[in-house]
C-alpha cells in the first residue's frame, strides 16, 4: 500500500517539477537544464516521501492489566483453642481414658493406629 503511494507521489512530484519549470518564457524554454532541475527535484521529493512512508512503524503493545491491591488485608483467623489438661492430673486421666481405649494409666501411653505407643497429651 505504501509503496504504491510512494510511486504515485514521486510521479506527481515529477510532473509538477516539469510543469513548473516548463512555464518559463519562450526564450528560456529551449534550455534543457530547467527540465533536468524539475526532474531531479521531482525524483528527490519522491525519494524522500517514499522513504518516509516505507519505514516500519512502531506499534506499542497493549497496556498490561494489573488488578488493584485490596484496600485492606484481613486479619488472620485466630488459632483454635484446644483444651488439654495437665499430665498426671485427675482430669488428664479422665480425658485420655475416654479418648483412647488402649490408654494405660500407669505409663500414660496409648496404642495408636500405626502400632506405635504414644504419650497422651
Please, could you describe this protein's structure?
This protein is mainly alpha-helical. Among the domains are: 2-53, no CATH class; 90-119, no CATH class. The chain contains three helices and two strands, in the order αααββ. It has helices at 2-21, 32-53, 90-99; strands at residues 109-111, 117-119. It has a two-stranded antiparallel sheet. A hairpin with a 5-residue loop joins strand 1 (109-111) and strand 2 (117-119). The chain is rod-shaped, with a radius of gyration of 48 Å. The two termini are 84 Å apart.
Helical proportion, percent range: 40-55%
Radius of gyration: 48 Å
As laid out across the biggest beta sheet, the strand order is 1-2
* Order of secondary-structure elements: HHHEE
- The structure class reads mainly alpha
Instruction: Output the number of helix runs.
Output: 3
Percentage of β-strand residues: under 5%
Q: What is the number of beta strands?
A: 2
User: Which residues sit in consecutive blocks of at least 5 with pLDDT less than 50?
Assistant: none
Distance between the termini: 84 Å
Coarse morphology: rod-shaped
Mean pLDDT, all residues: 77
Largest sheet: 2 strands, antiparallel
How is the topology of this model organized?
Layout: H1 2-21, H2 32-53, H3 90-99, E1 109-111, E2 117-119
Antiparallel strand pairs: 1-2
Helix pairs in contact: 1-2
Short descriptors:
two-stranded antiparallel sheet; 2 strands; mainly alpha; 121 residues
Amino acid at each position: 500500500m505504501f509503496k504504491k503511494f510512494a510511486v504515485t507521489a514521486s510521479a506527481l512530484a515529477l510532473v509538477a517539477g516539469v510543469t513548473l519549470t516548463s512555464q518559463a518564457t519562450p526564450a528560456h524554454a529551449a534550455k534543457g537544464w530547467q527540465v533536468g532541475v524539475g526532474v531531479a527535484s521531482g525524483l528527490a521529493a519522491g525519494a524522500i516521501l517514499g522513504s518516509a512512508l516505507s519505514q516500519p512503524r512502531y506499534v506499542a503493545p497493549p497496556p498490561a492489566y494489573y488488578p488493584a491491591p485490596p484496600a485492606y488485608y484481613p486479619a488472620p483467623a485466630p488459632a483454635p483453642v484446644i483444651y488439654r489438661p495437665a499430665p498426671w492430673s485427675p482430669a488428664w486421666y479422665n480425658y485420655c481414658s475416654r479418648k483412647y481405649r488402649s490408654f494405660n494409666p500407669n505409663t500414660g501411653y496409648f496404642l495408636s493406629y500405626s502400632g506405635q505407643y504414644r504419650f497422651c497429651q
